[in-house]
Specification:
Layout lengths: L3 E5 L5 H11 L8 E4 L5 H5 L3 E5 L13 H8 L7 E8 L5 H12 L3 E2 L4 E4 L4 H14 L1
Parallel strand pairs: 1-2, 1-3, 3-4, 4-5, 4-6
Helix pairs in contact: 1-5
The protein binds flavin mononucleotide.
The site of flavin mononucleotide has 19 residues, from helix 1 and strand 4.
Protein name: Flavodoxin
GO molecular function: electron transfer activity; FMN binding; oxidoreductase activity, acting on NAD(P)H
Cofactor: FMN
């Protein structure tokens, strides 16, 4: 059974809704955890077989700067060879924050095992279905 940790930051709830969709289909796996980033530690990275990381586009196409960005810096030496799926919500941009985040994960040696899931504001029904299917697939 995979240990699945879903770690996210969300300000207005859209990325949180995405995280909850993943968790809804893997929570019966006793090893799965849903953690907002302020509750997460490097241990939650090291213990995970599959890591879902979620953050919306903030600043100017950046990760949220007060919690998610420092967390990324803290965990950067633990990313190598980790199986990772990225997700998050955005507004008016073109998704550049996610492309930059993907490059950053790859440059740290992380393995992106699925295409990232991005939602324009609230996740659509098909995006929600996709997130649920990924939770189920890896549980
Ligand atoms: C301070 C701030 C900065 C933002 N910057 C961007 C941005 O650069 N590009 C973009 O597409 N959306 C931007 N957004 C829109 C958010 O990504 C969008 O509202 C998203 O749904 C928020 O996700 P959340 O509900 O999980 O917090 C910004 C929102 C805020 C509040």
């Amino acid at each position: 059974m995979n240990k699945i940790n879903i770690i996210y930051w969300s300000g207005s709830g859209n990325t949180e809704t995405m995280a909850e969709s993943v968790y809804s289909t893997c929570k019966d796996n006793a090893h799965s955890k849903l953690l907002s980033v302020d509750k997460a530690s490097i241990e939650n990275i090291n213990e995970a077989d599959i890591l879902f990381l979620g953050c919306p586009s903030m600043g100017d196409e950046q990760l949220e700067e007060s919690e998610m960005e420092p967390f990324m810096e803290t965990i950067s030496s633990s990313i190598k060879d980790k199986k990772i799926i990225l997700f998050g919500s955005y507004g008016w941009g073109d998704g550049q924050w996610m492309k930059d985040w993907e490059e950053r994960i790859k440059s740290l040696g992380g393995i992106l095992i699925e295409d990232s899931i991005i939602s324009n504001y609230e996740p659509s029904e098909s995006e929600t279905d996709l997130l649920k299917s990924l939770g189920k697939k890896y549980a």
